[in-house]
Amino acid sequence: MFADRAKIFIKSGKGGDGHVSFRRELYVPAGGPDGGDGGKGGDIVFEVDDGLNTLSDFRQVHKYIAKSGEPGGKRRCHGASAKDLVIKVPEGTVIKDFESGKVIADMSGDNRREVVLKGGKGGLGNMHYATSTMQAPKYAQPGQESQELWVTLELKVIADVGLVGFPNVGKSTLLSRVSNARPKIANYHFTTLNPHLGVVDLGDGAGFVMADIPGLIEGASQGVGLGHDFLRHIERTKVLIHVVDAASTEGRDPIEDIHAIKKELIAYNPELEQRPQVIAANKTDAVYEDGQDPVERIRQAFEKDGIKVYPISAVSGKGVKELLYGVYEILKYLDRKPVVFEKEFDISSLGAGGNLPYSVDRNDAGEFVVEGPKIEKMLGYTNLESEKGFVFFQNFLKEQGILEELEKAGIQEGDTVRMYGLAFDYYK
Protein backbone atom coordinates (compact mmCIF):
# COMPACT_ATOMS: atom_id res chain seq x y z
CA MET A 1 0.00 0.00 0.00
CA PHE A 2 1.09 3.57 -0.64
CA ALA A 3 2.91 4.98 2.39
CA ASP A 4 2.08 8.65 2.72
CA ARG A 5 2.23 9.02 6.49
CA ALA A 6 4.84 7.97 9.04
CA LYS A 7 5.71 8.60 12.68
CA ILE A 8 9.40 8.77 13.58
CA PHE A 9 11.61 9.76 16.51
CA ILE A 10 14.40 12.25 15.81
CA LYS A 11 17.21 13.33 18.12
CA SER A 12 20.16 15.61 17.49
CA GLY A 13 23.62 14.94 18.91
CA LYS A 14 24.81 16.16 22.31
CA GLY A 15 27.74 18.56 22.40
CA GLY A 16 31.05 17.11 23.56
CA ASP A 17 32.22 18.07 27.04
CA GLY A 18 35.07 20.49 27.55
CA HIS A 19 38.25 18.96 29.01
CA VAL A 20 40.09 19.72 32.24
CA SER A 21 43.86 19.33 31.99
CA PHE A 22 47.10 21.20 32.68
CA ARG A 23 50.38 21.44 30.85
CA ARG A 24 52.83 18.85 32.12
CA GLU A 25 56.16 19.32 30.40
CA LEU A 26 59.75 19.00 31.41
CA TYR A 27 60.98 22.19 33.04
CA VAL A 28 57.39 23.50 33.24
CA PRO A 29 56.37 22.28 36.70
CA ALA A 30 53.26 24.46 36.99
CA GLY A 31 51.88 24.71 33.48
CA GLY A 32 48.60 26.51 32.87
CA PRO A 33 45.27 24.95 31.89
CA ASP A 34 45.23 23.43 28.41
CA GLY A 35 41.89 21.55 28.31
CA GLY A 36 40.32 21.68 24.84
CA ASP A 37 36.74 22.35 23.76
CA GLY A 38 34.19 19.67 22.96
CA GLY A 39 32.88 19.18 19.45
CA LYS A 40 29.40 20.11 18.26
CA GLY A 41 26.69 17.44 18.11
CA GLY A 42 25.18 16.52 14.77
CA ASP A 43 22.09 18.32 13.46
CA ILE A 44 18.96 16.54 12.21
CA VAL A 45 18.51 17.75 8.64
CA PHE A 46 15.63 16.97 6.27
CA GLU A 47 16.42 17.12 2.56
CA VAL A 48 14.28 16.67 -0.54
CA ASP A 49 15.28 13.74 -2.76
CA ASP A 50 13.68 13.88 -6.22
CA GLY A 51 14.16 10.13 -6.57
CA LEU A 52 11.64 9.42 -3.79
CA ASN A 53 7.87 9.50 -4.15
CA THR A 54 6.67 7.63 -1.03
CA LEU A 55 7.46 7.49 2.68
CA SER A 56 7.81 3.70 2.60
CA ASP A 57 11.42 3.81 3.88
CA PHE A 58 10.15 5.09 7.22
CA ARG A 59 8.07 1.94 7.77
CA GLN A 60 11.26 -0.01 8.56
CA VAL A 61 13.28 2.64 10.42
CA HIS A 62 11.50 4.66 13.11
CA LYS A 63 14.39 6.27 15.03
CA TYR A 64 16.94 8.74 13.66
CA ILE A 65 19.61 9.79 16.16
CA ALA A 66 22.59 11.96 15.26
CA LYS A 67 25.98 11.29 16.86
CA SER A 68 27.31 13.38 19.71
CA GLY A 69 30.36 15.60 19.49
CA GLU A 70 33.62 14.24 20.89
CA PRO A 71 34.95 15.64 24.17
CA GLY A 72 37.90 18.00 24.19
CA GLY A 73 41.37 16.70 24.91
CA LYS A 74 44.70 17.67 26.43
CA ARG A 75 47.00 20.25 24.90
CA ARG A 76 44.10 22.38 23.70
CA CYS A 77 42.86 19.63 21.39
CA HIS A 78 39.37 20.35 20.10
CA GLY A 79 36.96 17.41 20.05
CA ALA A 80 35.69 16.48 16.61
CA SER A 81 32.22 17.71 15.68
CA ALA A 82 29.74 15.03 14.68
CA LYS A 83 28.38 14.81 11.16
CA ASP A 84 24.83 15.97 10.57
CA LEU A 85 22.24 13.24 10.08
CA VAL A 86 20.50 13.94 6.76
CA ILE A 87 17.04 12.39 6.33
CA LYS A 88 15.91 12.20 2.70
CA VAL A 89 12.20 12.75 1.97
CA PRO A 90 10.13 13.21 -1.21
CA GLU A 91 9.08 16.70 -2.23
CA GLY A 92 5.76 17.63 -0.66
CA THR A 93 6.54 16.10 2.74
CA VAL A 94 5.15 18.08 5.66
CA ILE A 95 6.91 17.56 9.01
CA LYS A 96 4.63 18.01 12.04
CA ASP A 97 5.05 17.78 15.79
CA PHE A 98 3.31 14.52 16.74
CA GLU A 99 1.80 15.81 19.99
CA SER A 100 0.33 19.10 18.77
CA GLY A 101 0.00 18.44 15.05
CA LYS A 102 1.67 21.81 14.35
CA VAL A 103 3.75 22.23 11.19
CA ILE A 104 7.52 22.24 11.74
CA ALA A 105 8.56 22.39 8.10
CA ASP A 106 7.07 21.90 4.63
CA MET A 107 9.57 20.42 2.19
CA SER A 108 8.00 21.99 -0.89
CA GLY A 109 8.79 24.71 -3.41
CA ASP A 110 12.14 26.35 -2.69
CA ASN A 111 12.51 24.65 0.68
CA ARG A 112 14.82 21.80 -0.30
CA ARG A 113 16.83 21.46 2.91
CA GLU A 114 15.95 22.35 6.50
CA VAL A 115 17.73 21.90 9.82
CA VAL A 116 14.93 20.73 12.14
CA LEU A 117 16.90 19.93 15.30
CA LYS A 118 20.20 21.61 16.15
CA GLY A 119 23.01 19.60 17.68
CA GLY A 120 24.29 20.75 21.07
CA LYS A 121 27.26 23.11 21.18
CA GLY A 122 30.52 21.74 22.50
CA GLY A 123 31.54 22.75 26.01
CA LEU A 124 34.50 25.02 26.64
CA GLY A 125 37.69 23.51 28.07
CA ASN A 126 39.25 24.82 31.26
CA MET A 127 41.77 26.88 29.28
CA HIS A 128 38.99 29.47 28.85
CA TYR A 129 38.45 29.95 32.58
CA ALA A 130 41.89 31.04 33.71
CA THR A 131 41.92 34.48 35.36
CA SER A 132 44.41 36.50 37.33
CA THR A 133 42.93 35.15 40.54
CA MET A 134 42.09 31.63 39.30
CA GLN A 135 45.11 30.44 37.37
CA ALA A 136 44.39 26.72 37.69
CA PRO A 137 40.64 26.25 37.04
CA LYS A 138 39.50 22.68 37.55
CA TYR A 139 36.25 23.30 35.75
CA ALA A 140 35.21 22.79 32.13
CA GLN A 141 31.84 23.40 30.53
CA PRO A 142 29.70 20.35 29.74
CA GLY A 143 28.42 19.98 26.20
CA GLN A 144 24.99 21.37 25.41
CA GLU A 145 22.18 18.83 25.56
CA SER A 146 20.57 17.42 22.42
CA GLN A 147 17.02 18.03 21.22
CA GLU A 148 14.55 15.22 20.59
CA LEU A 149 11.06 14.98 19.17
CA TRP A 150 8.46 12.58 17.83
CA VAL A 151 7.31 13.87 14.45
CA THR A 152 4.73 12.91 11.88
CA LEU A 153 5.67 12.95 8.20
CA GLU A 154 2.82 13.52 5.77
CA LEU A 155 3.26 13.40 2.02
CA LYS A 156 0.88 15.75 0.25
CA VAL A 157 0.91 15.30 -3.52
CA ILE A 158 1.98 18.39 -5.46
CA ALA A 159 -0.22 18.67 -8.54
CA ASP A 160 -2.01 21.47 -10.39
CA VAL A 161 -5.19 19.49 -10.92
CA GLY A 162 -6.84 16.84 -8.76
CA LEU A 163 -9.34 14.25 -10.00
CA VAL A 164 -11.95 13.56 -7.31
CA GLY A 165 -14.96 11.30 -7.29
CA PHE A 166 -16.35 8.06 -5.97
CA PRO A 167 -14.63 4.77 -6.79
CA ASN A 168 -15.02 3.25 -10.25
CA VAL A 169 -16.15 6.42 -12.03
CA GLY A 170 -13.19 6.42 -14.44
CA LYS A 171 -10.57 8.68 -12.84
CA SER A 172 -7.70 6.25 -13.44
CA THR A 173 -8.83 5.63 -17.03
CA LEU A 174 -8.94 9.37 -17.69
CA LEU A 175 -5.47 9.96 -16.20
CA SER A 176 -3.94 7.11 -18.21
CA ARG A 177 -5.46 8.49 -21.44
CA VAL A 178 -4.28 12.09 -21.04
CA SER A 179 -0.86 11.64 -19.43
CA ASN A 180 2.16 9.39 -19.05
CA ALA A 181 0.78 7.85 -15.83
CA ARG A 182 -0.06 4.17 -15.88
CA PRO A 183 -2.24 3.42 -12.85
CA LYS A 184 -3.68 -0.05 -12.38
CA ILE A 185 -7.25 -0.12 -13.69
CA ALA A 186 -9.87 -2.70 -12.83
CA ASN A 187 -13.64 -2.83 -12.63
CA TYR A 188 -14.04 -2.95 -8.85
CA HIS A 189 -14.18 -0.46 -5.99
CA PHE A 190 -11.07 1.01 -4.34
CA THR A 191 -8.71 -0.31 -6.99
CA THR A 192 -6.64 2.87 -6.58
CA LEU A 193 -5.00 3.03 -3.16
CA ASN A 194 -2.31 5.54 -3.95
CA PRO A 195 -2.42 8.88 -5.80
CA HIS A 196 -0.96 8.74 -9.29
CA LEU A 197 0.66 11.76 -10.90
CA GLY A 198 0.67 12.36 -14.62
CA VAL A 199 1.99 15.19 -16.79
CA VAL A 200 -0.58 16.44 -19.29
CA ASP A 201 1.18 17.83 -22.39
CA LEU A 202 -0.99 20.09 -24.56
CA GLY A 203 1.85 21.10 -26.88
CA ASP A 204 3.69 24.40 -27.39
CA GLY A 205 4.87 24.34 -23.78
CA ALA A 206 1.34 24.20 -22.38
CA GLY A 207 0.46 21.57 -19.84
CA PHE A 208 -0.01 20.74 -16.18
CA VAL A 209 0.40 18.03 -13.56
CA MET A 210 -2.71 16.00 -12.78
CA ALA A 211 -3.26 13.69 -9.81
CA ASP A 212 -5.77 10.86 -9.53
CA ILE A 213 -6.90 11.18 -5.91
CA PRO A 214 -8.06 7.76 -4.63
CA GLY A 215 -11.79 7.13 -4.41
CA LEU A 216 -13.58 8.92 -1.60
CA ILE A 217 -16.53 7.71 0.43
CA GLU A 218 -19.06 9.51 2.56
CA GLY A 219 -17.63 10.12 6.02
CA ALA A 220 -14.08 10.48 4.69
CA SER A 221 -13.63 13.85 6.42
CA GLN A 222 -14.26 12.10 9.76
CA GLY A 223 -11.60 9.52 8.94
CA VAL A 224 -13.99 6.79 7.75
CA GLY A 225 -12.11 4.26 5.67
CA LEU A 226 -8.90 5.86 4.40
CA GLY A 227 -10.51 9.29 4.21
CA HIS A 228 -7.87 11.49 5.84
CA ASP A 229 -5.06 9.72 3.98
CA PHE A 230 -6.75 10.55 0.68
CA LEU A 231 -8.07 14.01 1.46
CA ARG A 232 -4.69 15.42 2.47
CA HIS A 233 -3.51 15.09 -1.14
CA ILE A 234 -6.19 17.47 -2.40
CA GLU A 235 -4.94 20.38 -0.26
CA ARG A 236 -2.19 21.36 -2.70
CA THR A 237 -4.20 21.19 -5.94
CA LYS A 238 -5.24 24.40 -7.75
CA VAL A 239 -8.23 23.04 -9.70
CA LEU A 240 -10.54 20.14 -8.89
CA ILE A 241 -12.19 17.96 -11.54
CA HIS A 242 -15.24 16.10 -10.28
CA VAL A 243 -15.40 12.88 -12.30
CA VAL A 244 -18.86 11.29 -12.29
CA ASP A 245 -20.55 8.36 -13.98
CA ALA A 246 -23.09 10.25 -16.10
CA ALA A 247 -24.59 6.98 -17.36
CA SER A 248 -25.23 5.70 -13.80
CA THR A 249 -23.92 2.29 -14.86
CA GLU A 250 -23.87 1.18 -11.21
CA GLY A 251 -27.10 2.87 -10.22
CA ARG A 252 -25.45 5.93 -8.64
CA ASP A 253 -26.88 9.43 -9.13
CA PRO A 254 -24.04 11.69 -10.40
CA ILE A 255 -25.62 14.84 -8.95
CA GLU A 256 -25.88 13.29 -5.48
CA ASP A 257 -22.30 12.05 -5.80
CA ILE A 258 -20.99 15.56 -6.52
CA HIS A 259 -22.88 17.03 -3.56
CA ALA A 260 -21.53 14.26 -1.32
CA ILE A 261 -17.92 14.84 -2.42
CA LYS A 262 -18.25 18.62 -2.00
CA LYS A 263 -19.64 18.05 1.49
CA GLU A 264 -16.62 15.92 2.44
CA LEU A 265 -14.17 18.46 1.02
CA ILE A 266 -15.75 21.33 2.97
CA ALA A 267 -15.85 19.29 6.19
CA TYR A 268 -12.13 18.48 5.83
CA ASN A 269 -10.96 21.96 4.81
CA PRO A 270 -13.46 24.76 4.01
CA GLU A 271 -10.85 26.47 1.80
CA LEU A 272 -11.22 23.67 -0.74
CA GLU A 273 -14.71 24.91 -1.63
CA GLN A 274 -13.09 28.12 -2.96
CA ARG A 275 -10.90 26.26 -5.47
CA PRO A 276 -11.97 26.41 -9.13
CA GLN A 277 -13.96 23.28 -10.01
CA VAL A 278 -15.23 21.64 -13.19
CA ILE A 279 -17.23 18.48 -13.78
CA ALA A 280 -16.21 15.67 -16.13
CA ALA A 281 -19.45 13.81 -16.94
CA ASN A 282 -17.83 10.50 -17.87
CA LYS A 283 -19.13 7.34 -19.58
CA THR A 284 -21.31 9.28 -22.03
CA ASP A 285 -20.69 6.45 -24.51
CA ALA A 286 -22.92 4.29 -22.27
CA VAL A 287 -25.83 6.79 -22.13
CA TYR A 288 -29.02 5.61 -23.83
CA GLU A 289 -31.17 8.13 -25.71
CA ASP A 290 -34.52 6.93 -24.37
CA GLY A 291 -34.86 9.41 -21.53
CA GLN A 292 -33.71 12.74 -20.12
CA ASP A 293 -30.16 13.68 -21.06
CA PRO A 294 -28.16 13.10 -17.82
CA VAL A 295 -25.49 15.61 -18.87
CA GLU A 296 -28.14 18.32 -19.21
CA ARG A 297 -29.42 17.43 -15.71
CA ILE A 298 -25.89 17.93 -14.31
CA ARG A 299 -25.54 21.23 -16.17
CA GLN A 300 -28.81 22.55 -14.76
CA ALA A 301 -27.71 21.59 -11.26
CA PHE A 302 -24.20 23.11 -11.27
CA GLU A 303 -23.47 25.52 -14.14
CA LYS A 304 -25.60 28.20 -12.45
CA ASP A 305 -22.92 28.16 -9.71
CA GLY A 306 -20.13 28.68 -12.23
CA ILE A 307 -19.06 25.02 -12.37
CA LYS A 308 -18.71 24.08 -16.04
CA VAL A 309 -19.72 20.58 -17.15
CA TYR A 310 -17.77 18.67 -19.84
CA PRO A 311 -19.33 15.49 -21.28
CA ILE A 312 -16.54 12.97 -21.92
CA SER A 313 -15.76 9.33 -22.51
CA ALA A 314 -12.44 8.41 -20.92
CA VAL A 315 -12.49 5.10 -22.83
CA SER A 316 -12.98 6.53 -26.35
CA GLY A 317 -11.44 9.94 -25.71
CA LYS A 318 -14.53 11.85 -26.81
CA GLY A 319 -14.70 15.33 -25.24
CA VAL A 320 -11.44 14.87 -23.32
CA LYS A 321 -9.53 17.49 -25.34
CA GLU A 322 -12.17 20.14 -24.58
CA LEU A 323 -11.95 19.27 -20.85
CA LEU A 324 -8.15 19.60 -20.75
CA TYR A 325 -8.07 22.94 -22.59
CA GLY A 326 -10.88 24.25 -20.38
CA VAL A 327 -8.87 23.38 -17.27
CA TYR A 328 -5.70 24.89 -18.72
CA GLU A 329 -7.53 28.17 -19.37
CA ILE A 330 -8.39 28.30 -15.66
CA LEU A 331 -4.82 27.50 -14.62
CA LYS A 332 -3.38 30.28 -16.80
CA TYR A 333 -4.85 32.86 -14.42
CA LEU A 334 -3.81 31.13 -11.19
CA ASP A 335 -0.56 31.22 -9.24
CA ARG A 336 1.17 27.96 -10.21
CA LYS A 337 3.57 27.98 -7.26
CA PRO A 338 2.91 25.02 -4.96
CA VAL A 339 0.90 25.61 -1.81
CA VAL A 340 3.40 25.69 1.08
CA PHE A 341 2.21 25.26 4.66
CA GLU A 342 3.41 27.87 7.14
CA LYS A 343 5.64 26.94 10.06
CA GLU A 344 3.65 26.67 13.31
CA PHE A 345 5.87 24.85 15.81
CA ASP A 346 8.51 26.61 17.92
CA ILE A 347 11.62 24.40 17.89
CA SER A 348 13.42 26.71 20.35
CA SER A 349 11.13 25.41 23.12
CA LEU A 350 12.91 22.05 22.97
CA GLY A 351 15.91 21.01 25.03
CA ALA A 352 18.75 23.48 25.15
CA GLY A 353 16.94 25.81 22.77
CA GLY A 354 14.35 26.48 25.45
CA ASN A 355 17.04 28.01 27.68
CA LEU A 356 17.85 30.82 25.29
CA PRO A 357 17.57 34.13 27.16
CA TYR A 358 15.73 37.31 26.29
CA SER A 359 15.34 40.70 27.93
CA VAL A 360 12.51 43.22 28.26
CA ASP A 361 13.67 46.84 28.67
CA ARG A 362 12.39 50.33 28.03
CA ASN A 363 14.32 52.85 25.91
CA ASP A 364 14.49 56.65 26.19
CA ALA A 365 11.54 57.02 23.79
CA GLY A 366 9.32 55.03 26.14
CA GLU A 367 9.24 52.01 23.81
CA PHE A 368 9.45 48.47 25.16
CA VAL A 369 12.45 46.67 23.66
CA VAL A 370 12.48 42.87 23.60
CA GLU A 371 15.79 41.29 22.56
CA GLY A 372 17.89 38.19 23.00
CA PRO A 373 18.87 34.98 21.16
CA LYS A 374 15.41 33.44 21.71
CA ILE A 375 13.70 36.39 19.96
CA GLU A 376 16.27 36.66 17.19
CA LYS A 377 16.02 32.95 16.43
CA MET A 378 12.22 33.00 16.33
CA LEU A 379 12.10 36.00 13.99
CA GLY A 380 14.59 34.23 11.72
CA TYR A 381 12.16 31.45 10.83
CA THR A 382 8.79 33.23 11.07
CA ASN A 383 7.07 34.88 8.11
CA LEU A 384 5.30 37.82 9.74
CA GLU A 385 3.80 38.91 6.42
CA SER A 386 1.43 35.93 6.36
CA GLU A 387 -1.62 35.67 8.58
CA LYS A 388 -0.64 32.25 9.93
CA GLY A 389 2.91 33.43 10.55
CA PHE A 390 1.71 36.41 12.57
CA VAL A 391 -0.65 34.21 14.62
CA PHE A 392 2.31 31.92 15.33
CA PHE A 393 4.35 34.97 16.40
CA GLN A 394 1.61 36.06 18.83
CA ASN A 395 1.28 32.57 20.29
CA PHE A 396 5.06 32.41 20.72
CA LEU A 397 5.04 35.63 22.76
CA LYS A 398 2.26 34.26 24.96
CA GLU A 399 3.62 30.72 25.42
CA GLN A 400 7.15 31.91 26.24
CA GLY A 401 5.88 34.32 28.92
CA ILE A 402 7.03 37.40 27.02
CA LEU A 403 3.60 39.07 27.11
CA GLU A 404 3.49 38.47 30.85
CA GLU A 405 6.92 40.10 31.25
CA LEU A 406 5.76 43.12 29.24
CA GLU A 407 2.71 43.51 31.49
CA LYS A 408 4.92 43.30 34.57
CA ALA A 409 7.07 46.07 33.05
CA GLY A 410 3.97 48.29 32.87
CA ILE A 411 3.01 48.14 29.20
CA GLN A 412 -0.33 49.75 28.29
CA GLU A 413 -2.57 49.47 25.24
CA GLY A 414 -1.17 51.48 22.35
CA ASP A 415 2.44 51.30 23.61
CA THR A 416 5.14 50.37 21.10
CA VAL A 417 7.09 47.13 21.31
CA ARG A 418 10.34 46.99 19.34
CA MET A 419 12.15 43.77 18.33
CA TYR A 420 15.25 43.94 16.14
CA GLY A 421 14.05 46.77 13.89
CA LEU A 422 10.41 45.68 13.93
CA ALA A 423 7.86 47.84 15.77
CA PHE A 424 4.41 46.71 16.96
CA ASP A 425 1.57 48.41 18.81
CA TYR A 426 0.45 46.53 21.91
CA TYR A 427 -3.25 45.70 22.29
CA LYS A 428 -4.52 43.17 24.80
For the residues shown, what is the average pLDDT? 79
Give me the side-by-side strand order of the main sheet. 10-11-9-12-13-14
Q: What would you call the shape?
A: elongated
Order of helices and strands: EEEEEEEEEHEEHEHEHEHEEHHHEE
Instruction: Specify the number of helices.
Output: 8
Give the biggest beta sheet.
Answer: 6 strands, mixed
Tell me the number of strands.
Answer: 18
Query: What is the share of helical residues?
Result: 10-25%
Distance, first to last CA: 50 Å
Low-confidence parts lasting 5 or more residues at pLDDT below 50?
A: 182-193, 218-227
Strand content: 15-25%
- Assembly state of the chains shown: single chain
Supply Rg.
Answer: 29 Å
Report the structural category. Answer: alpha/beta
Account of the protein in words:
- This protein is α/β, with parallel strands linked by helices and 428 residues long.
- It is 18% helix and 22% strand.
- The protein contains 8 helices and 18 strands.
- It has helices spanning 171-178, 227-231, 254-268, 294-302, 320-331, 373-380, 387-399, 402-408, and strands at residues 5-11, 44-48, 63-65, 85-89, 93-97, 103-107, 113-117, 148-155, 161-164, 196-203, 206-212, 239-245, 277-282, 308-311, 359-362, 368-371, 416-419, 422-425.
- The strands form 4 sheets. It has a 6-stranded mixed sheet with strand order 10-11-9-12-13-14, with helices on both faces. Strands 3-1-8-5-6 form a 5-stranded mixed sheet, with no helix packed on it. A 4-stranded mixed sheet has the order 15-16-17-18.
- The model is unreliable at 182-193 and 218-227 (pLDDT under 50).
